[in-house]
Amino acid sequence: MIVARIGRKSAIIFYMSANETSHIRNFSIVAHIDHGKSTISDRVLELTHTVEERDLDSQMLDTMDIERERGITIKSNAVRVMYDADDGETYQFNLIDTPGHVDFTYEVSRSLAACEGAVLVVDSTQGVEAQTVSNAILAMNANLDIVPAINKIDLPSAEPERVRAEIEDALAIPAEDAVCVSGKTGAGIHDLLESIVFLVSPPSGDADAPLKALIIDSYFDQFRGVVATVRVFDGSIKAGDTLHMMAADSDFLVDDVGAKRPAETSLPVLSVGEVGYVVTGLKDPGAVHVGDTLTGASRRCAEALPGYREAKPMVFTGLFPIDNKEYENLRDALEKLRVNDPSLTWSPETSVALGFGFRVGFLGLLHMEVVKERLEREFDLDLIGTSPSVDYHVFTTAGEMLDIKSPQDLPSPEKIARIEEPYLKATVIVPPEYMGAVIQLVIEHRGIQDNMVYLAENSVEITFFIPLAELILDFFDQLKSRTKGYASLDYEFADYRASDLVKLDVLLAGEMVDALSFIVHKDKAYTLARGLCDKLKEIIPRQQFEVPIQGAIGNKIISRSTVKAVRKDVLAKCYGGDISRKRKLLEKQKEGKKRMKQIGTVDVPQEAFLAVLKVDDE
Amino acid sequence: MSARVLYLHAPFCKRKCSYCDFASFATPAGDPLMASYGAALLRQIDEAEKIGLIDGLDTAYVGGGTPTFMGGSTVELVERIAALGPSEVTVEANPDSASLDLLSNLRDAGATRISMGVQSLDDGELRMLGRVHDAQTALEALHVAVSLGLSVSADLMCAIPLQTPSSWLYTLGGVIGAGIGHVSVYPLMIEEGTPFFQAVEAGEMPAPDDGDEAARMEEAAAILTAHGYERYEVASYARPGRMCRHNLSYWTGASYLGIGAGAASMFGHDEIPLVADAFPQIGQVPANAHRIRLSCKTDRRLMAENPSLADQVIDVEFLNERESLAEDLMLGARMARGLDRDLVSRSRDVMGQELDECLAGLIDDGYLDDALAPTEKGWLLGNELYGRLWDLAEAAD
Questions:
Q1: Measured between beta carbons, which residues in chain A are less than 8 angstroms from residue B384?
Q2: For A564, phi and psi rounded to 5 degrees?
Q3: Which residues in chain A have their CB less than 8 angstroms from residue B9's CB?
Q4: Alpha-carbon distance A563 to A548, whole Å?
């Protein structure tokens, strides 16, 4: 339980009347992954006495277990802190945390839409990286005041002067006054807070105009229904108001309003310029759309805020409960996750091998992993995820265009006139010595180089077009390993392009396993089929009989490997009279088996269905 | 009723072998801890006898660790046990500490059987395993024990790195040539928390190959059988009259008391009041408890300081009737004579048709023969066989 302490002076003006927007600062902290955004957020909470140091569970704003474990922020989160500035005034800071991964660029942009400023954190040991650039561009496009902060200056390898020059050269952001900070030691955080007061504009807005507020996030509370995080641009919100959601075209009665400090604290009103939460009482998790505009039910604003757009899923995978009885539970769990993750989409899918499940759309691979992990942990489901696919446009000889998101749905070759696949425009930033390695990797993944510029003496930006399907296979892992972790990657959807694609099937013990099929470029089919057969041979445990694994295109077998039959599996060792221990070992073995899916006579572990992601390129 | 089978545990070794995860610790030679620990075991034997938990013995077994490393303390323990009248008293020995003097003292104190931790007769393999003895010492120790008139068994380990088919034959031939009556054969197991486990994880050592394990186990079976040893359990071979009756008790549901740090005990339904009396720390015994299994988790030093049975840290497990029967079926399938008819019929009374379906499946799939004894496949793929029998512990829905 986190107990927020409200400072004496802060308590008095913890909520402000509308004419005090001059003392409000709404800002985000943006950074490339691992540049220390969450640690700086923690220091800000600490220095403003929002939480005491001893209550500071590391990385406060990352509330999900997965976020803390992986050290990434996935969900937006808005916290209000009160800052007693050197000028003797107290300011209301609304810190809107943003996700730190390229999969969640849309979430970043919608969080930024709620701010007037952004703190751009750059790691003084790493310099400007791909997401530093993309985040800076997002912030500039949103017309935000940018406060550059050079982090990790406590490290011996810190090079703040080099990084300062890089920010100016690569991003054209004045950085001579950039604050040098250490999220770890807290050095410079005071200066950073002062810079926010002076560099970030206060919100402007009309307190007397009809309400206009942006929904920047929402979550479901089983007792209070949907709770939305909002930014008020005009007017105000208080309990008892009837509000209208413009895109959803529906109304609700406000049960309560308040702000997170970081515990939820009820307030009489959310005034113009402020950020806070609104308890809607709505019982349907799908009723509130992030990005929608709130206005008065009777007194409406003229037009909605820009900002609402459907986040488009790019990667699709089949999710199947190992136990088919869990199908309905999986559906309920997906519904619940969609409340604060509107980008999640799904449709039912049936597999001969895996039974009933869903084809689920994700923003990217990390998003996919995170959702799958949350489903398994928070809803206690055992799931099999199949190889990710992209949305192919298949033009049939009959002149139709089909959206194919699952290899199973691909029509037979004679019915296909051509297939188009989504391409991305991708950016890699890397030290010059790795340029060759990156270009090589891009070519191996069917990429087409577009441009190459020096951002600084030690930093080259390479842009290229690449099929999304190639990027989701193993591109990022390969990029990291071939550049010793120096490269950073960013991408956005470009267009659809025609490609020579085929469906590769896998047979286990002579039976085609539909859930293992995937679509691949013809030139790579043989190598991938061979790699996949070898990988599956490693993953599928030896059974009491021989299991042949075959890769096939149509009726033609193009690769083969064999899982040898197990010869010996017995605990011969005598544990004296410790029979309990012997039994526990047997039970452990059985437990392992339960986590596998029996396909025909073969026990197949979950990870086999993602084996294609782990095939080595060689 | 009282238990007629006693196990004593000696958690001391000169050095810990690289594969070993048993309750045993490297200890300086002559450490006074061993004498005070031995005294604690004597005290617990007295208590158990007084309560009636043991009352006259059929068999006893002093295992480890390395009981011979405890020297005189082990002789005293054997003397004490012998007074309870067992007809079989086994002492585990390491060749390194199995001197002529000690073995003859043990015999004079009442030991009838020595189980020698030979493992291999190849010096390279022994060094690799982290054993403290060499092949010559092992052979000498076997000869000394045999010539003292003791019944002798050798533990051998197969499918270890560096072992070749011919070095394995050499080891088997060597122990057979020593004229011993009993041989146990175990494949090397990589146990979590051991140096070998770390080495395998780090890729510095190959994981055991089950093909090699199967081949070595089959070779052992062929050679030992040809030399008059009968395989009476998955890992145990004996010449006529030389089976280890103590170990047979473990596999046939007999009650036994285990004393010492790391020792396990098992008691049937009738002894539960006595057990609750001797070990008040186990608390309430559920009404449907049919069998009780105890495992002593006390640190050996603490045991030396607090020697009473009631002071020991005990893991306890209660089994109901159905679980007890399933356990006996599981253990029965380890033995060449197979599942006992009487046990099968008692199990049928509780499990009904499920038992017959399970047995029919095991026969159809080739794990058991028609006499309900393990087949060749049942020996090598025993975990499937034992696992399916243990699954009977829970009624199918």
A1: 544, 569
A2: -65, 155
A3: 576
A4: 6
Angle at which helix A105-112 crosses helix A130-141, to 10 degrees, equals: 40
| Partner A, chain B 179-218, Cβ-Cβ below 8 Å | 184-187, 189, 210-211, 213-215, 217
Within chain A, what is the greatest distance between any pair of CA atoms? 84
Q: Is B346 exposed, middle or buried (0-12, 13-18, 19+ CB in 10 A)?
A: middle
User: Residue B73 is encoded by which pair of tokens?
Assistant: 């303390």
**DSSP bridge partners of B154:** B116, B183
- Residue A19 pLDDT > 50: no
DSSP A202: P
Tell me the β-bridge partners of A349: A357
Token digits for A424? 């991305």
CA distance B233 to B253: 15
Question: Using an 8 Å Cβ cutoff, are B135 and B121 in contact?
Answer: yes
Nearest C-alpha in A relative to B328: A579
Report d(CA A417, CA A501) in Å as an integer: 11
Interchain pair A577, B256: CB under 8 A: yes
CA distance A389 to A520: 10
Reported ipTM: 0.84
Please, what are the domains in chain B? 5-248 (3.20.20.70), 323-393 (no CATH)
Helix (H) or strand (E) holding A584: helix A579-594
- The pair of structure tokens assigned to A42 is 């923690």
pLDDT, tens only, B28-63: 999 999 999 999 999 999 999 999 999 899 999 999
Q: Which of B331, B381, B387 shows the shortest C-beta gap to A579? A: B331
Helices A365-378/A327-338 angle, 10° precision? 120
Does residue A78 contact residue A217 with C-beta atoms inside 8 Å?
A: yes
Does A580 contact B293 at a Cβ distance shorter than 8 Å?
yes
Q: Is B217 exposed, middle or buried (0-12, 13-18, 19+ CB in 10 A)?
A: buried
Say which residue, A270 or A488, is predicted with more confidence. Answer: A270
- As a whole number of angstroms, the distance between CA A492 and CA A608 comes to 30
Element (H, E) at A590: helix A579-594
Judged by CB atoms closer than 8 Å, whether chains meet at B7 and A580 is answered as: no
- DSSP, res B145: H
Residue A251 φ then ψ, to 5°: -115, 160
> Which tokens is B258 given?
């285990």
